[in-house]
């Protein structure tokens, strides 16, 4: 058996689909349960004691109807990764009480002007982006605020903490805060993850103090995606920064997935986004093949591709573009059987779909376009 994916924990299962609904849907299909997603948001808000310390990343949400759930819960500050996400989210916020969007990426070339165009078109929303050098600052249009991106050890983007003072000083009044994403902190042992994350936060809090002593005000510090956000909320220094608000930025939690269950086993979240599939073939005595392959479920993590809610004993063996193969010894489903697959990594899985079937606790709401998918630019 190659790359076995563990079965799903049934305690995280969303409500079943109403009678007859699944049978009417052409598969594979992305199913988003808004009721489950809403409960996931509230589970995180319980941890953050309200919306004040959460700047969620909408790279997972992708669908305006899901983004609206955040707004309904009082959240007005967000992160995103693409121009399309920034525009979709910005339009949603501009139509309500306004808000704040950090495009947490390093933009270059025409992308910078495109973000400025979005900011000019949506004056009720504050937009900002990341910089990691003094030289970048002059290239960012005046309509766009600046967060200094810092490297806490992930070594993907960001400046060393030692360079932060010069960059922050050069940003001047355009400085919105510090961004220190520690996405590499996903150790299996949560105690070890907390210890290592806190070591990085110790340096970060000391930096904020040094900047304040130099007359540089830091209004906001952003850390922590889904794996590390509980540890970030527990760090006493981040919670008590004078004149500075610390916010965590988990986004995957809105839909939850297999990887998140493993990373935060005590988070009471549900699998709000699943892929409905039919069993297409029975290629052996102990195998079954579904009609949802890598074009429907993200396959970058071969050791955790997907799990079938209805067949918890099944182990995912692998994928091709239109097929996912499972192995089970006893409760093998029949050809044509309907199954809900839980993605190992839900964020890029949602990005693969053009549209989604929206349900509310299993009851049909309608269909919605996955408007913020991809890198294209809206008009």
Structural key phrases:
single chain; alpha/beta; Lyase, Ornithine Decarboxylase, Chain A, domain 1; TIM Barrel; 2 domains; seven-stranded parallel beta sheet
Quote the average pLDDT. Answer: 95
Under the CATH scheme, the architecture of the largest domain is Alpha-Beta Barrel
Main sheet summary: 9 strands, mixed
Task: Tell me the number of helical segments per DSSP (H or I, 4 or more residues long).
Answer: 11
**The CATH homology group name of the largest domain:** Alanine racemase
Name of the CATH first level of the largest domain: Alpha Beta
Overall tally of structural domains? 2
As a percent range, the share of helical residues equals: 25-40%
- DSSP strand tally: 16
Structural class: alpha/beta
Spatial gap, N to C terminus: 48 Å
In N-to-C order, the SSE pattern is: EHHEHEHEHEHEHEHHEHEEEEEEHEE
Principal-axis shape: globular
Low-confidence stretches: none
**What radius of gyration results from the CA coordinates?**
21 Å
- The CATH topology assignment of the largest domain is TIM Barrel
Instruction: Report the sheet-strand fraction.
Output: 15-25%
Structure description:
The protein is an alpha/beta fold. The protein folds into 2 domains: 10-32 and 266-369, D-serine dehydratase-like domain (Lyase, Ornithine Decarboxylase, Chain A, domain 1); 55-249, TIM Barrel (Alpha-Beta Barrel). It is built from 11 helices and 16 strands. Strands 1, 9, 10, 11, 12, 13, 14, 15 and 16 form a 9-stranded mixed sheet that branches. Strands 2-3-4-5-6-7-8 form a 7-stranded parallel sheet. α2 crosses α3.
């Amino acid at each position: 058996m190659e790359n076995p994916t563990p079965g799903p924990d049934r305690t995280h299962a969303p409500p079943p689909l109403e009678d007859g609904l699944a049978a009417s849907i052409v598969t594979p299909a992305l199913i988003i349960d808004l009721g489950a997603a809403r409960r996931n948001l509230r589970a995180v808000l319980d941890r953050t004691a309200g919306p004040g310390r959460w700047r969620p990343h909408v790279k997972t949400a992708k669908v305006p109807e899901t983004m609206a759930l955040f707004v309904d819960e009082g959240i007005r500050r967000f992160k995103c990764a693409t121009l399309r996400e920034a525009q979709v989210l910005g339009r949603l916020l501009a139509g309500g009480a306004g808000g704040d969007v950090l495009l947490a990426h390093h933009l270059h070339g025409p992308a910078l002007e495109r973000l400025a165009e979005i900011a000019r078109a949506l004056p009720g929303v504050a937009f900002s982006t990341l910089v990691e050098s003094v030289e970048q600052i002059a290239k960012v249009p005046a309509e766009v605020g600046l967060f200094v991106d810092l490297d806490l050890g992930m070594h993907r983007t960001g400046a060393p903490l030692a360079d932060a003072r010069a960059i922050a000083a050069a940003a001047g009044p355009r400085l919105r805060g510090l961004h220190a994403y520690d996405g590499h902190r996903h150790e299996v042992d949560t105690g070890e993850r907390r210890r290592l994350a806190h070591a990085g936060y110790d340096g970060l809090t000391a930096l904020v103090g040094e900047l304040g002593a130099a007359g540089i005000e830091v209004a906001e510090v952003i850390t922590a995606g889904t794996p590390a956000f509980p540890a970030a909320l527990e760090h006493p220094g981040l919670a008590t920064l004078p004149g500075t608000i610390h916010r965590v930025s988990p986004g995957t939690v809105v839909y939850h997935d297999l990887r998140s269950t493993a990373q935060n086993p005590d988070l009471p979240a549900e699998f709000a986004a699943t892929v409905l599939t039919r069993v297409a073939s029975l290629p052996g005595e102990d195998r079954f093949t579904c009609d949802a392959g890598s074009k429907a479920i993200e396959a970058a993590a071969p050791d955790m591709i997907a799990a079938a809610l209805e067949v918890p004993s099944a182990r995912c063996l692998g994928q091709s573009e239109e097929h996912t193969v499972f192995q089970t010894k006893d409760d093998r489903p029949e050809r044509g059987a309907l199954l809900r697959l839980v993605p190992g990594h839900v964020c890029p899985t949602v990005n693969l779909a053009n549209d989604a079937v929206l349900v509310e606790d299993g009851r049909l709401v309608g269909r919605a376009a996955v408007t913020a998918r991809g890198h294209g630019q809206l008009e």
